Amino acid sequence: MNGCYDVIVIGGGPAGLAAALEARRTGAARVLILERNNELGGILNQCIHNGFGLHYFKEELTGPEYAGRFIAELEGSGIDVLLGAMVLDFNDGKTLHVMSRSHGYQELHAKAVVLCMGCRERTRGAIAIPGDRPAGVFTAGAAQLYMNIEGYMVGKRVVILGSGDIGLIMARRMTLEGAKVLACVELMPYSNGLNRNIVQCLNDYNIPLYLSHTIVDIRGDKRVEQVVVAEVGPDRNPIPGTEMVFDCDTVLLSVGLIPENELSRKAGVQIDRRTNGPVVYENMETSLPGVFACGNVVHVHDLVDFVTAESQRAGRAAALYAQNGEPQGPCVEVRNGRAVNYTVPQHIRTGNVEKFVEIFFRVNNVYRNRVIRISSGGKVLASFKREHMAPGEMEKVAFPKALFPQIADGEITVSVEEEEAQ
Amino acid sequence: MTELICIVCPKGCHLKVDEEKDFAVTGNGCPRGAEYGKKELTNPTRVITSTVRVEGGAIRRASVKTSSDIPKGKIFEAMRLLDNVTLQAPVHMGDIVVHDILGLGVDFVATKNVPPRT
Ligand SMILES: Cc1cc2nc3c(=O)[nH]c(=O)nc-3n(C[C@H](O)[C@H](O)[C@H](O)COP(=O)(O)OP(=O)(O)OC[C@H]3O[C@@H](n4cnc5c(N)ncnc54)[C@H](O)[C@@H]3O)c2cc1C
Ligand code: SF4
Predict the structure, then answer these.
(1) Residue in A147, A176, A196 nearest the CB of B7
(2) Smallest Cα–Cα separation from A92: which of A290, A314, A322, A347?
(3) Thinking of the domain A4-120+258-327, which architecture would CATH place it in?
(4) CB-defined site of ligand 1, < 6 Å
(5) Rounded mean pLDDT of chain A?
(6) Could you read off the pLDDT of A250-292 as tens digits, one per residue?
């Protein structure tokens, strides 16, 4: 392995796999994937359930099968892969400091870098639950890793805090393996998980979902023995007198994911406070020229198919950067309007768009029969109808290039409006 | 009339199924939803996924799934068939792990390659 590449991809999950393959197809001669684990596939290796690939492959695959399709494509593609290789640091000169089992410490150089480090889970510390600190409290993803990769059962009587998809999937998984899941407790009046997961993971097994509830106490000496759950008011504070006690030995936390950006921050990549991921242009380039990012490291995705599409764009752009350097031209800012929590991309270089640019975002509440609007200079440029929108489901709209000449003051705003207000 | 959420794809359409009109479905975003709505009220089925032990492999568990959906009422019985299964590495995606589950004509198949331990 000689130290100079056209494109180096950090992380070998679905984002990294798609980015590397597309960079190669676009003509990058030397492409390398660095993955700290001993196998490629990222989080998909522990997501053994089905529900992946309906958009991209038009069939329903399990996580390992979805990753397996891309891993199979790597063979004979001429892409180098280094497993057990942790990237410690990189800088805007695109020198990477890498520690690997096979080569020890190394400095590698690239013309373009693609960040595909995924995300990690919020932990109990990040949400501050009162009570004792006994054993038996896991993040849902850690429990998933123990069960599906290591083959250990983490508990027998379980309460799940948070109704994110990982928590829902684990409720079913533990039930199938013989555990009793007593409750899934959600602070908000709606679930952040996909509807289909509520149906097939909770309803199928008669697991109650308590919306607008939270855990107010965890009791236990060495191991969890009880949790106390209470209803919360509109201010999200517990309502006295609504407490319920559950006898359980395990608490799973499914309270959200945070993009993994220590490396990006150290390198000086600009981070968006709303996504916790890098601010990106239409081609997934970050604030550092030649450094691209895609997948869960940019914003948390619910569907791997969208990760693949986004990462292909990043991979293609990285290969083009390695060949031609930085695209130039005017840049439009994307602003968040009413009910919109964030957008990706945050900047659009209009000259770099072919037919349309896809804008991804999340809304701040559950809405029915609304219109997504793109406006500029007080004028509506495009509207898109939606029957149902929820924070747990990423939205996307395709904004056509034909409308770019109508953009005023170099900015557009994405907002969600009542239908009749049109 | 029964209200259901379609689970065939992540869109999760809100379906209405009319038992009186031969399970006619409304609210579906695509034809697969109509099929699901009818089946869910007449013969609900699910694909089941789990893991089994692997010996001599680079990792200790291989993930598996049912090759097709099985009746909801048979899920726990089917899961028990996996309790005593141990595979020998290498395991290949698509390998049959349990043949003809409960006489349903559906197999448990591996969803992952497990190379031998090196
Ligand atoms: C529990 C769960 C259930 C899901 N269910 C579904 C579903 O049913 N359907 C669906 O479509 N999607 C689902 N998703 C979403 C989808 O799986 C993810 O969005 C997708 O896997 C993200 O891919 P990624 O490559 O960005 O991240 P990851 O898969 O997390 O990959 C990141 C990789 O980077 C590596 N890495 C990180 N830092 C470094 C470093 N410094 N050096 C080297 N390597 C590094 C990590 O080891 C990892 O392999 C689910 C996600 C989770 C967590
Ligand atoms: S009806 Fe079609 S579009 Fe709607 S959830 Fe079902 S499969 Fe998806």
Answers:
(1) A196
(2) A290
(3) 3-Layer(bba) Sandwich (3.50)
(4) A 10-16, 34-37, 42-44, 47, 51-52, 86-87, 116-118, 141, 144, 165-166, 169, 260, 263, 295-297, 301-305, 307
(5) 93
(6) 999 998 888 999 999 999 999 999 999 999 999 999 999 999 9
CB contact (8 A) between residue B60 and residue A64: no
Q: Is residue B59 included in any domain, yes or no?
A: yes
H/E segment holding residue B78:
helix B75-80
Q: Which domain holds residue B6?
A: 2-43
Nearest chain A alpha carbon to B110: A65
Work out the mean pLDDT of chain B and round it to a whole number. Answer: 93
Instruction: Fold for A123-255, please state it.
Output: FAD/NAD(P)-binding domain (3.50.50)
| B68 shares a domain with B23 | no
Cα A225 to Cα A167, A185, A245: the distances in Å are 20, 17, 10
CA A408 to ligand 2 centroid distance, Å: 38
The single residue listed with the structure tokens 């895609």 is A294
B117 within a domain of the structure (yes/no): no
Cβ–Cβ contact B79 with A under 8 A: yes
In degrees, to the nearest 5, what angle opens at C-alpha A95 toward C-alphas A90 and A97?
60
Residue A422: pLDDT band by 50, 70, 90 thresholds?
very low
B93 secondary structure, DSSP code: T
Task: Name the CA radius of gyration of chain B, rounded.
Answer: 18
